[in-house]
């Protein structure tokens, strides 16, 4: 049901752009105004998100300790699991961002038919997540061919690696296959696993359906419906050189594709997708576990008036001496 | 803001990366203009309507290839009665004899690099 709600929203979006760009022919609106607005919302949204996070105090280090903390020199410490300095944190963060290291520990809980509770490691989610994110990145970078003139070597290189098997014409990109397979797996996982279906919200499905819509329209455009790419690049270049231009010959599939992309960008900062920025600010990942080495003062602690023993001794100096109580000072 | 220095640096790096197309094109003085193609002088029409060719010529080539290589159907007749051989080098490049200023110019604009020329003979320079 919640999946249907999300699917319905995507269908409505499709209807909007179909009617707007396809039937009514508002190409300047869907080709220029909407993308500009979406990118603006994306940029401002992300900055706003990060600033709100940065304003929340982190009173002490929140280590997730999966390894030996650094203590005495002769006890080997696990600098990656339990880093004690900036360098260790940088390495842990890099592995997290590039390889999703903590997702590798994903486990699954199941009740066997004999009512026994078993836990097993579940790496499929990790594999699918890696496949999805890396192919998304490759596709994103390959799209720079529409936005840069001349097209840099990096993009051409990615294309040649991605089309390594030289299958079909136009050359089949592996990232296209991977992103669709990964997204379908991630969707199937939510739909078929009972526990996951129970905790999945429309927002979870919406992100997946939206990404699927973007990928499917792109793939259809490349391999099936075809599009005049010269005109598509003219439009894209017009956007990034701030001299928008709307060629008349690009078909509706192109507008559907960039409308879904625009919705994705505009939705990004306000959804769970902001984990792209959030991962860098996760306290359990980006803080060195040096609680025992350094004192971390809670930033909202009120100013406490302290009266130390030394001061107290000073106050009652004469009385203490008279009573024959030994003084620290001497 | 806590750790303001690091966070603002991170945000700046993010903003610079995301807006690369803007800086890059400003630096190269790129314009939203399609490449100038050198069209064949002798002929007036392609084997299919121009707009169609622009988007689907690679599919046409693929169909031709499969027909020629697999079913040995090497010729096709245009609606106006002209007969062409289904051939990459002998047909396309006979009219479009200047590969550099036609096929390549367009492909470079969009970073497309057909691997056909690994095997098929590539005409040298602007033969006329
Ligand atoms: C996050 C953003 C985007 C994603 C994930 C995405 C995804 C895709 C995918 C998977 C394809 C299939 C072919 C390929 O992989 O190259 C594709 C094709 C395409 N996309 Fe996107 N896209 C995005 C943004 C854009 C934008 C902003 C434009 C505007 C210019 C655009 C225009 C196109 C065009 C013209 C094609 C057809 C390419 C061809 O025929 O070779 N896309 N897209």
Could you characterize what this model shows?
Chain A has one domain (2-69, 77-296): Fumarate Reductase Cytochrome B subunit (Up-down Bundle). In chain A, a hairpin with a 5-residue loop joins β1 (107-111) and β2 (117-121). A two-stranded antiparallel sheet of chain A has the order 1-2. The mean pLDDT of chain A is 93. Chain A is mainly α. Chain A is built from 14 helices and two strands. The longest helix of chain A is centred in the N-terminal third of the chain and has 28 residues, at 27-54. Chain B is mainly α and 128 residues long. Chain B has a domain at 50-118. Chain B contains five helices and two strands. In chain B, strands 1-2 form a two-stranded antiparallel ribbon. Chains A and B meet through α2, α5 and α9 of A and α1, α2, α3 and α5 of B. The structure holds protoporphyrin IX containing FE (HEM). Protoporphyrin IX containing FE binds at residues 136, 139-140, 142-143, 146, 173, 175-176, 179, 214-215, 218-219, 221-222, 227, 229, 232, 236, 254, 257-258, 261 of chain A.
